[in-house]
Specification:
heterodimer, A: 304 residues, mainly alpha, ABC transporter involved in vitamin B12 uptake, BtuC, 2 strands, B: 372 residues, alpha/beta, Rossmann fold, 2 domains, 7-stranded mixed sheet, 6-stranded parallel sheet, ABC transporter permease (chain A), transmembrane helix (chain A), transmembrane (chain A)
Chain lengths: 304, 372
């Protein structure tokens, strides 16, 4: 296998392996933001989800139960955020940061006993049986959660476009006045959207501890939850574009290590910055001056 | 505005009555010196299967010693935070000996505290203590773990089929480079056709990147991997899942890889800590510049895993016996780095104690990778 193929296969594998947490958290954030609220707490939700999923899997022997519990806990934490933000005069961003710190802190506190043991993990689906090269086979061993994320993205896009519920969420996110005029329960819908969004972020966390890198420790997250907020902007609040954004981010992240294995060893710090550089470049290239961000929900504001 | 100070005889008596026990406690203070309070500060969690666990395990043994009281704090950032931690250990817990175990604690934080509390002893892990530059109540200790990685390399060379070994490294600082070089020298002492592929992750602890690096190595046909990151758990587990052999680092990781774990280079800090603590009890300050390797008991090897062939064990044991005698030099001239430049002329040898190694800035021939 020549050098370029190696890097491409590694990037494909990296995209499939690394992208899933970005996908889930950005989908969750997308849902919440389309309803007109920002949730920076999803980083904390994700770390807590990772911990509780690992702990549940270890205690019960069932990784899928771990995923469920992570989603449930995510909804609880997100619900708290939704509830508090629904009160008059509460700032989304400040509350989000509080939730983020509380989530990570709680996860570290309760997660202490689970750093050492090895929990049962979610098995991958081997899709590379047809390939000759073991590299390709390995790159194509994809986690079922990845497909769940894909399905979730398309389902959410369909929901926004074609269902009554999707329309109502969009109205709540676009114009609170219009929503109230229609008699929609604005606060309740935002509360539900925030809770559901954090539930998805919790699943993203479960992926980190049960699929890849598949281990619980306190340095597990490297800010995926916060990056997801940027990815949603990048994806223009479109769930299907969240897939592209997450895949791109995953692939760019795999660039650094794989280039080093084929002998391109200079400047690895630069390659490690590739995902961020790519995001920045695309944002700059697609934003036109003198216009607000296309697709941004009207009610979304950090000043509220 | 006036404030009345009525200092009646009654309140004076009350005051005396209240302060008396405190004074008495103060007087009994020196008697308390029978127990020595020792402070341990870790940069990460105590159970990271790595650097911090190696220290914490030794601290746990130390705790059981007579007349020793231990105060510990984990996850202390290499910022002004560590100064506050040291200060509270000294003032609130009465610590007389402090071990700030992480590299970044030394300068300026520990030095600042040492100037402020000249009666407290500070011993730092890994810092380069210099006699005229640094105060006498500070010092540093470290182990020469490079020979452990050399032995890892010897065993790895017997286990590999593809003749490609891998090394997941955090940052290209001298200690890490010495480990990579030693691992490569050990392996190539068995079979000079072996190469060591190194991947730098750029961070001491970054699980996703460590897993990616291990996977990339597997994709390249590397079949034995070792590492130098703060917590080797992710590297060892990922390698085990990919069916690779692993050599451990920092602490014993055999539980994480029951099939593929060959052996590992571990710290044995209890040797250093118990020496220091015994000295303190006898009223003697610990040494200011303490170094030691396998033969001094500062470093030990993990037990051989089930996959290690008999030939590898025999060879490794023979080399180990040689190292235990003292004066063993893994780096002997003529030696080239991986760019072809001669780093060690013929006739010159660097034993593990050589000061030159503490400023290593090259990768030895046979290592694939670059520092910048």
């Amino acid at each position: 296998m020549d050098a370029i193929t190696t890097v491409l296969v590694a990037m494909l594998g990296g995209a499939l392996r690394v992208s899933t947490p970005f996908l889930f958290v950005s989908l969750g954030e997308c849902l919440t933001e389309r309803a007109g609220r920002i949730n920076l707490g999803n980083e904390g939700v994700m770390v807590f989800g990772a911990m509780i999923a690992y702990a549940t899997s270890y205690e019960t022997g069932s990784p899928w139960l771990g995923v469920l519990v992570a989603a449930g806990c995510g909804m609880l934490i997100g619900g708290l955020h939704g509830l508090v933000c629904g009160m008059r005069g509460v700032n989304d961003v400040a509350m989000g940061i509080a939730i983020m710190l509380a989530g990570t802190g709680l996860a570290f506190f309760f997660g202490k006993p689970y750093v050492q043991p090895s929990a049962p993990l979610l098995p991958n689906i081997p899709l590379g049986g047809w390939a000759d090269s073991p590299q390709l086979q390995n790159a194509l061993a994809v986690s079922p959660l990845f497909f769940l994320g894909l399905a979730g993205a398309f389902a959410m896009a369909w929901m926004f476009r074609a269902t009554r519920m999707g329309l109502r969420i969009r109205i709540v996110g676009e114009s609170e006045d219009a929503a109230r005029a229609l008699g929609l329960p604005v606060e309740r819908m935002r509360f539900l959207a925030t809770a559901a969004g954090s539930g998805l972020a919790g699943i993203g966390g479960a992926f980190l501890s049960l699929c890849y890198p598949a281990s619980w420790n306190e340095g597990l997250s490297s800010g995926q939850g916060l990056m997801a907020v940027a990815l949603v902007v990048f994806a223009r609040w479109n769930p299907v574009h969240c897939i592209t954004a997450a895949l791109l981010f995953g692939a760019a992240g795999a660039l650094g290590p794989s280039l080093q294995t084929i002998g391109i060893t200079w400047g690895y710090y630069l390659f490690y910055a590739a995902p961020y550089a790519v995001t920045l470049a695309i944002l700059v290239a697609t934003v036109q001056p003198g216009r607000t961000l296309k697709g941004m929900p009207g009610e979304l504001s950090i000043g509220r | 505005m006036t404030t009345r100070h009525d200092l009646s005889r009654r309140s004076l008596l009350q005051g005396v009555a209240l302060t008396a026990p405190a004074l008495a406690l103060g007087v009994t203070g020196p008697a308390r010196a029978a127990t020595t309070t020792i402070g341990f500060i870790y940069v990460g969690p105590k159970d990271d299967y790595g650097y911090n666990q190696a220290h914490a395990e030794a601290a746990a043994v130390l705790k059981k010693m007579k007349d020793i009281r231990l105060v510990e704090e984990e996850k202390v950032a290499e910022t002004a935070d560590v100064e506050r931690t040291m200060e509270s250990m000294i003032r609130l817990d009465g610590a007389s000996l402090i071990f700030p175990t992480s590299f970044g604690y030394f300068d300026p934080y520990m030095l600042r505290m040492a100037a402020k509390y000249p009666k407290v002893q500070f011993r730092h892990c890994g810092g380069l203590w210099t006699k005229d530059k640094h105060p006498m109540n500070t010092g540093s200790y470290f182990g020469y773990i490079g020979m452990g990685q050399y032995l890892n390399g010897v065993v790895a060379a017997h286990a590999t089929k593809t003749k490609k070994l891998g090394f997941v490294a955090a940052k290209p600082i001298p200690q890490v480079l010495v480990n990579i070089n030693s691992f490569a020298m050990g392996a190539r002492s068995v079979d000079p056709s072996i190469t060591v592929q190194v991947i730098f992750t750029g961070e001491w602890s970054m699980p996703v990147k460590e897993a990616e690096a291990t996977n990339s190595l597997a994709g390249q046909g590397v079949d034995v991997v070792t590492c130098h990151v703060d917590g080797p758990k992710v590297v060892i587990e990922t390698a085990e899942r990919r069916g690779m052999f692993t050599c451990g680092y920092h602490a014993d990781q055999s539980r994480l890889a029951p099939k593929g774990y060959l052996t590992g280079a571990e710290w044995n800090w209890i040797k250093v800590y118990s020496d220091f603590a015994e000295g303190m009890k006898a009223g003697k300050a610990p040494g200011n510049f303490v170094r030691g390797g396998l033969s001094d008991g500062f470093v030990k090897m993990s037990a051989y895993g089930p996959a290690v062939p008999a030939a590898a064990k025999a060879r490794a044991e023979a080399v180990k016996a040689e190292i235990m005698k003292g004066g063993f030099a893994a780096f002997t001239g003529p030696l080239k780095d991986n760019k072809g430049t001669t780093v060690l002329p013929a006739g010159k040898a660097l034993p593990e104690t050589a000061v030159e190694l503490e400023s290593t800035n090259w990768l030895v021939e046979g290592v694939i990778g670059a520092i910048a």
